[in-house]
Design goal:
about 170 residues, alpha/beta, five-stranded mixed sheet, 5 helices
């Protein structure tokens, strides 16, 4: 059994400004950097065999801060990228409430398929190891939905820099 420490990246400039980031790179703000440092401090005595991250900057930067005390190189994968919000990307989130969804948003089925592919990647690449993975709010929710066999709306939202442990 592999222990998967699933982490959401630290707060970004766009999170604070309520901008839909989707698959844009994103930039940690001062609070997000401090959040990542807190996770690093809280987990520095844990042994990790690998640290994996989304290939988007906000997650990679968070993972790099967490990896520092462990001397590990961050492995990136596009499987951990945030949901592609298509035409909603870059928009102010409160303005989207009553708008019809564009056709170019990644479907929940595609998102959950990617989440399953990620879980299988972790299981096969790191069997019986301890892995920390830094992703994003919606993909992390999809990973947990697949893991628990629940609808996504039954999975609680992860806060920035929150850590959840899955035994896969």
């Amino acid at each position: 059994m592999t222990d998967l420490y699933l982490v959401r990246h630290g707060e970004t400039v766009d999170n604070a400004n309520k901008i839909m980031q989707g698959q844009t790179q994103g930039e940690l703000n001062t609070k997000g950097i401090e959040q990542a440092r807190t996770v690093a401090k809280n987990l520095k005595s844990e042994h990790f065999d690998a640290i994996v991250s989304s290939d988007l900057k906000r997650s990679f930067d968070t993972a790099s801060i967490i990896a520092e005390p462990h001397g590990l190189t961050v492995i990136t994968t596009p499987l951990l990228r945030e949901r592609d919000w298509g035409g909603f990307t870059g928009r102010y989130i409160p303005d989207l409430k009553d708008e019809p969804w564009p056709d170019d948003i990644e479907s929940l089925d595609a998102l959950k398929s990617r989440a399953l592919e990620f879980l299988n990647f972790i299981r096969t690449t790191f069997p019986n190891q301890k892995v920390l993975a830094v992703g994003h709010g919606i993909i992390n929710k999809a990973i947990q939905a697949v893991y628990y066999g629940k609808p996504m709306n039954e999975i609680l939202k992860m806060d920035n820099a929150e850590v959840r442990l899955l035994h896969i």
